[in-house]
Specification:
By secondary structure, the protein is an alpha/beta fold. The chain contains 19 helices and 16 strands. The chain has a domain of 214 residues: Rossmann fold (3-Layer(aba) Sandwich), CATH 3.40.50.1100. The longest helix is centred in the first third of the chain and has 19 residues. The chain is globular and about 55 Å long. Bound molecules: pyridoxal-5'-phosphate.
Length: 462
C-alpha cells in the first residue's frame, strides 16, 4: 500500500514511512493511494468477534508488509490490553433507535486512546527495528496530549513535547499531561489557543532544517495511522447493529475532523454507513461550511467542550481531497487561500459531494448543558459535554436506520460542566484517584516559533 499527499507534491511513502513522517513535506496530509475494499461477506464475518480481531481484519490491508501478521496481532493485543472494558468500544442504548458508542474506557478516558495506544506500540516496534530515535511534538486541545503522554512516556527512542493552550484545558486534562514523571515527556504551556499550538506545530514541520535536525514526527490526527485506528469502531458498532444487512448512521462530536473522517474511510471500504453527522459546539466552522459553502475562520471562543474549540480543522483537508475528485492542485489552492486570507468558498461540485456524505449541526453552551441534564432523566446516562453536543445534534436527524453517537470522553474528565448541568460531580475511576495530589511539571512558553524550537533543541537528550 502506497501513501500520497493531498497536495500531490510530496514523496509517495509506505505505511511505515507515512506513519513516522506525520505531515507531508508539501504541507499536505497522507492518504492511501486506493482505499482497500471489504465485501459484504467480509463485513458480516466481523459481527460478534472480539474488538482486537475486528481491528486486525480492518487495518491489515492498509499496513502492507510493514509488520508481519503475528507481530501486528501482538501489537493490537498490547494496545487494547490497557482498556478496562472487555468490549473496548461498548454500545449503550439511549432510546428506541439511538445508541452511544462509549470510547472512553482507555487509560486517559477519551477516544484518543484508541489510536494513541496503538501507534505508541507501532512506533516502538518500527523505531527499534530501524535503530532510530525521534522527537514527537504534538498540539493538543486537551485529550490528544494526555493520550500521547500515556502512550509514549518512558520509551527509549522517543522524546515527546506536548503544546497545550494555557488555561483552555480542563484540570484533569492538564494534570494528565503534567504529572507523569518520565523524563522524555515535556509539557509546554503555550500562551495562546489550540489553533496557535497547531500552527506552531505545522510551522515546525515546514521548517525543514529544524524538522530534519530533530527528526520530527507527528502524532496529531494529521497522522493517517491515527485515523486508521479509529476506523475500527465504526465496523465493530455497525456490525453489532446489523451491518452489512442494514445501514447505520453516526453522529460525531467534531473538532479536527479526524474521528468523523475515519467514518468516511469505513464507508469507502464498503461499510453501509448512511449519514455521517458532524456535531460542533459554538466553534462551528464545519457546520457553517456544510450549510453555506463558505469555509471561513472566525475567532475561537472557549466552551465547556474544550476538545472541540477549533477553527482550523486539519483533517477537513482530507475530506476536501475526495470532494474535489482527488485533485491535489485544487486542494493546495484552497488551503493556500485559507492560510493567507482566512477562508475560501467550496466549489459547487465539491459542496454537493460533501453533502452526499456529511450532514451537520451545532449546539450552543446552553443547549449542551440542557442535553446533559435531559439525558440524565431520559436514560440515566451521564454524558461528557462533547458527547452531549453529539446527542443534541443526533436528535435533530431522526431516521429509519439506527443512530450511533460516539461518546468521545468520560464525564469525569469535565466534572465542572457536568456538575453545573446535573448537580452531580462524576468521580474519577479509582485507578486515577490520586491525580489531584500528584506534583505537576510544565514549562510556560510564548506563542513564538523560534522560542519553542530553541527550547526543544535544548531539551533533546539524544
Ligand atoms: C478530540 C476530541 C473530539 C474531536 O475529535 P476530532 O477527531 O478532533 O474531530 C471530540 N471530543 C473529545 C472528547 C475529544 O477529545
Amino acid at each position: 500500500m502506497r501513501y500520497i499527499s493531498t497536495r500531490g507534491q510530496a514523496p509517495v511513502l509506505s505505511f511505515e514511512e507515512a506513519m513516522l513522517t506525520g505531515l507531508a513535506r508539501d504541507g499536505g496530509l497522507y492518504l492511501p493511494e486506493a482505499v482497500p475494499q471489504m465485501t459484504a461477506a467480509d463485513i458480516a464475518a466481523l459481527a460478534g468477534q472480539p474488538y482486537e480481531d475486528v481491528a486486525f481484519r480492518v487495518m491489515r490491508p492498509f499496513i502492507g508488509d510493514a509488520f508481519a501478521e503475528a507481530e501486528f496481532a501482538d501489537i493490537i493485543a498490547r494496545a487494547y490490553a490497557t482498556f478496562t472494558h472487555a468490549a473496548r468500544a461498548p454500545l449503550v442504548q439511549l432510546g428506541p433507535n439511538h445508541f452511544l458508542c462509549e470510547l472512553f474506557h482507555g487509560p486517559t478516558l477519551a477516544f484518543k486512546d484508541f489510536a494513541m495506544q496503538l501507534i505508541g506500540q507501532l512506533f516502538q516496534a518500527a523505531l527499534a527495528r530501524r535503530g532510530e530515535a525521534i522527537t514527537i511534538v504534538t498540539a493538543t486541545s486537551g485529550d490528544t496530549g494526555a493520550a500521547a503522554v500515556e502512550a509514549f512516556a518512558g520509551l527509549d527512542n522517543v522524546e515527546l513535547f506536548v503544546l497545550l493552550p494555557k488555561g483552555r484545558v480542563s484540570e484533569v486534562q492538564r494534570r494528565q499531561m503534567t504529572t507523569p514523571t518520565a523524563q522524555n515527556v515535556h509539557a509546554l504551556v503555550v500562551d495562546g489557543h489550540f489553533d496557535d499550538c497547531q500552527a506552531l506545530l505545522k510551522d515546525m514541520f515546514n521548517d525543514f532544517a529544524f524538522r530534519d535536525g530533530v527528526r520530527l514526527a507527528g502524532v496529531n490526527s494529521i497522522n493517517f495511522a491515527r485515523v486508521l485506528a479509529q476506523v475500527v469502531y465504526y465496523f465493530s458498532s455497525a456490525t453489532s447493529l446489523g451491518a452489512p444487512h442494514r445501514a447505520v448512521d453516526f453522529t460525531v462530536p467534531t473538532g479536527n475532523f479526524g474521528d468523523i473522517f475515519a467514518g468516511y474511510i469505513a464507508k469507502r471500504m464498503g461499510l453501509p454507513v448512511g449519514r455521517l453527522i458532524v456535531a460542533t459546539n459554538q466553534n462551528d466552522i464545519l457546520d457553517r461550511t456544510l450549510r453555506t459553502g463558505q469555509h471561513v475562520r472566525h475567532g475561537v471562543t472557549p466552551s465547556i467542550s474544550p476538545s472541540m474549540d477549533i477553527q482550523v480543522s486539519s483533517n477537513f483537508e482530507r475530506a476536501l481531497y475526495y470532494a474535489y475528485g482527488e485533485d491535489p492542485a485544487a486542494v493546495a489552492h484552497e488551503m493556500a487561500a485559507l492560510k493567507e486570507g482566512g477562508g475560501f468558498t467550496v466549489s459547487q461540485g465539491a459542496l454537493e459531494s460533501l453533502r452526499e456524505t456529511y450532514a451537520s449541526g451545532r449546539a450552543s453552551e446552553a443547549e449542551t448543558s440542557a442535553t446533559i441534564a435531559a439525558e440524565r432523566s431520559a436514560s440515566g446516562e451521564i454524558l461528557c459535554p462533547h458527547t452531549a453536543v453529539g446527542v443534541k445534534v443526533a436528535g435533530e436527524h431522526p431516521g429509519a436506520d439506527p443512530m450511533v453517537t460516539l461518546a468521545t470522553a468520560h464525564p469525569a474528565k469535565f466534572p465542572d460542566a457536568v456538575e453545573a448541568a446535573t448537580g452531580l460531580r462524576p468521580p474519577l475511576p479509582i485507578r486515577m484517584g490520586d491525580l489531584y495530589e500528584r506534583p505537576e511539571r510544565m514549562t510556560e512558553v510564548p506563542n513564538n516559533l523560534a522560542t519553542v524550537q530553541g527550547l526543544i533543541r535544548e531539551r533533546i537528550q539524544h
